[in-house]
């Protein structure tokens, strides 16, 4: 039996202490996806984001609204109240709140005091998603929402989904910067037909807030979920090229290219799949996992959309299963016993986790000041 030496454990724990973990404070000054645009209707929706319970709705003129889900009077949840003419009438004693969170009516008083209200959060709708700013209101700048123009372009066909991830968003970002798991966790889906994938050469980019990994594997087969929709069939001369980039705590962008190396390079048909992985922490051990996929082939073909969606979400469900299991082990391990040993292929993920921790701690210090 070979157990790590006390020195190895100490070094792993020292390195781990410099990285974001599931217990690290959240990064609030960041735009997160609060909901899919299709989820927001003229009805009340309860949603926990970064540990805060919110009520979301869309006004009858289409404006998304997010308020704290706690009546200022006796803490009745506004999400369990009534939406009347785009205002929320509390289900307990009838205080009425408008879309800005101001209380505009107290039924037991003839005049509503101007000092009652609940916090409203800035929201911005962009294509299929609605972003929310949970940080200091004066720092909410919509120009810092990551530009994902392909999500709103007719040159891409989208398929969109949501997964309930029973794990920290930190683990998801790490998973997305780690292509070595594809051969194992996705052995029957994305990893099929690419033996030795985890040994294929890769390129790491680490810069100021930039963490990316890319890998090209040739020749390989095209993964099962894609081969049919991309009309490549069961070729063994395929090429797979994937670039994965951490953009913000709320966005991890993957761009995958699939092609047939038997076709001359200049005439090669390249199928792109662009995926925005959009994790929004519900709390420290669970995450709203929004996913938007775009493709540049078979545009508008509903059957392809359905096939691709089924195949991709089968693979994403494997990540959710894997990360959920990791979280349950992490949550059950006493802090003083916990250590995780990193290897060379973890370099980008380690740097990214250090970056998130630095962001979170700098913000926490600012809040405390
Ligand atoms: S708790 Fe909402 S009005 Fe009393
Ligand atoms: Fe994965």
UniProtKB/TrEMBL annotation:
What SUPFAM superfamilies does the record tag this protein with?
Bet v1-like (SSF55961), ISP domain (SSF50022)
Q: Which PROSITE patterns match?
A: RIESKE (PS51296)
Q: Which residues form the Rieske domain?
A: 31-132
Q: Which InterPro entries match?
A: Cholesterol_7-desaturase, Rieske_2Fe-2S, Rieske_2Fe-2S_sf, VanA_C_cat
Alphabetized UniProt keyword annotations: 2Fe-2S, Iron, Iron-sulfur, Metal-binding, Oxidoreductase
Q: Which GO terms describe its molecular function?
A: 2 iron, 2 sulfur cluster binding; metal ion binding; oxidoreductase activity
This protein's source sits in the domain of life called Bacteria
PANTHER family linked to this entry? 3-KETOSTEROID-9-ALPHA-MONOOXYGENASE, OXYGENASE COMPONENT, IRON-SULFUR DOMAIN CONTAINING PROTEIN
Put simply, this protein is called Rieske domain-containing protein
**Organism of this sequence:** Sphingobium lactosutens DS20
């Amino acid at each position: 039996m070979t157990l790590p030496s006390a020195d190895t454990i100490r070094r792993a724990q020292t390195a781990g202490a410099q990285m974001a973990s599931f217990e690290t404070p959240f990064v609030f000054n960041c735009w997160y996806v609060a909901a899919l645009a299709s989820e927001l209707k003229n009805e009340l929706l309860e949603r926990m984001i970064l540990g805060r319970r919110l009520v979301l709705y869309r006004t009858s003129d289409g404006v998304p609204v997010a308020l704290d889900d706690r009546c200022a009077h006796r803490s009745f949840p506004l999400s369990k109240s009534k939406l009347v003419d785009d205002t929320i009438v509390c289900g307990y004693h009838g205080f009425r709140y408008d879309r800005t969170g101001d209380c505009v009516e107290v039924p037991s008083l003839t005049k509503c005091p101007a000092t009652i209200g609940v916090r409203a959060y800035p929201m911005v709708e962009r294509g299929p998603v609605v972003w929310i700013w949970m940080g200091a209101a004066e720092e909410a700048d919509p120009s810092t929402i990551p530009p994902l123009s392909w999500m709103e372009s007719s040159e891409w066909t989208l398929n969109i989904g949501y997964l309930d991830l029973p794990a920290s968003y930190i683990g998801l970002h790490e998973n997305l910067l780690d292509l070595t798991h594809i051969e194992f966790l996705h052995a029957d889906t994305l990893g099929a037909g690419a033996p030795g994938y985890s040994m294929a050469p890769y390129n790491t980019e680490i810069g100021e807030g930039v963490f990316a990994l890319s890998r090209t594997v040739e020749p390989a087969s095209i993964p099962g979920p894609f081969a049919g929709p991309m009309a490549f069939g069961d070729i063994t001369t395929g090429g797979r090229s994937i670039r994965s980039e951490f953009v913000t705590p709320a966005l991890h962008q993957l761009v995958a290219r699939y092609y047939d190396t038997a076709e001359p390079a200049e005439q090669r048909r390249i199928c792109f799949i662009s995926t925005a992985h959009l994790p929004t922490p519900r709390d420290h051990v669970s995450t709203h996992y929004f996913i938007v996929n775009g493709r540049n082939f078979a545009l508008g073909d509903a059957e392809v959309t359905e096939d691709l969606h089924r195949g991709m979400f089968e693979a994403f469900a494997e990540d959710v299963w894997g990360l959920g299991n990791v979280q349950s082990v992490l949550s059950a391990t006493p802090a003083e016993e916990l250590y995780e040993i990193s290897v060379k292929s973890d370099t980008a993920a380690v740097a990214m986790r250090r970056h998130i921790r630095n962001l979170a701690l700098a913000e926490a210090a600012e809040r405390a000041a």
